[in-house]
Amino acid sequence: MQITFYGQSTFVIKLGEQVLMFDPFITGNPLVNDKDLSKFNPSHLLLSHGHQDHILDAAAIAKSSGATIIANYEVATHFGNAGHQHHPLNHGGKYNFDFGTVKCVNAIHTSSFPDGSYAGAAAGFVVWNSEQCFYFAGDTALTMDMKLIPLTCPKLDFAILPIGDNFTMGYEDAAIAAEFIECDRIIGCHYDTFGYIEIDKEKAIKTFEAKGKELILMDIGQSIIL
Ligand code: NI
Ligand code: MN
Questions:
Q1: How far is the CA of 38 from the centre of ligand 2 (A)?
Q2: How confident is the model at residue 16 (pLDDT cuts 50, 70, 90)?
Q3: Separation of 191 CA from ligand 1 center, angstroms?
Q4: Helix, strand, coil in percent for the chain, rounding step 5
Q5: What separation in angstroms does the CA of 77 have from each of 95, 136, 138, 194, 212?
Q6: What kind and span of H or E run contains 46?
Q7: pLDDT of 77-117, one tens digit each?
Q8: Ligand 1 centroid vs 50 CA: distance in angstroms?
């Protein structure tokens, strides 16, 4: 799978012919120089919750690409009512899409739309096909529910976890999360974008190393193949 990082929690992951984009927050991110949205042409947009730093550019990208929005019932319906293709999921449920399976899993985090209206409960996603499986945690605290992922999903090849603290778990808790989900390769996200979530990246990497885990911190615009 090719994984490209666009800052905060925004990732584009290619699975065969399909392109999944997660939590698009480009135009509002002070760390992103290239704010041109026209380069994005996802087949699916997966949104973890309703906060601005996860959905800001979803409507514009869905409109230009025709991507199907996959999210919890409230977030998916919100975009469906605005005329976008959408597929609602809810916690504990999975569905077989043409690119693979998506399971909607628990996150511990608040959620509302930028205008304050109800956006349901925040979620994470486990995504797999016949070859690979990964977990996109969204915004979440460390939670014992993460232990359910290895019990209910294929073995994870990698996971994308928030590490910035303040609004989500910090890297110390994220390293414990890596143990709970039984995954040795973690891509960090949701750090450094704003003052509240600036971290010591060296310390973060060493914290994971001490548990025998790899923490990958990608540059904005960088792609890797896992
Ligand atoms: Ni949030
Ligand atoms: Mn957030």
A1: 23
A2: confident
A3: 12
A4: 25, 30, 45
A5: 17, 21, 19, 30, 41
A6: strand 44-46
A7: 999 999 999 999 999 999 999 999 999 999 999 999 999 99
A8: 7
Could you please state the CATH topology (level 3) that the domain comprising 2-225 is classified under: Metallo-beta-lactamase; Chain A (3.60.15)
Task: For residue 135, give both structure tokens.
Answer: 């977990």
For residue 120, the model assigns a pLDDT of 98
Whether the Cβ atoms of residue 197 and residue 191 lie closer than 8 Å to each other: yes
Token pair listed for 176: 């414990």
Residue type at 62 in one-letter notation: A
Q: Note the pTM of the prediction, 2 decimals.
A: 0.98
Amino acid at 94: K
Distance 89 CA to ligand 2 centre (A): 20
Sheet with 94-97, edge to edge strand ranges: 94-97, 100-106, 123-128, 133-136, 158-162, 185-189, 214-216
Domain edges within the chain: 2-225
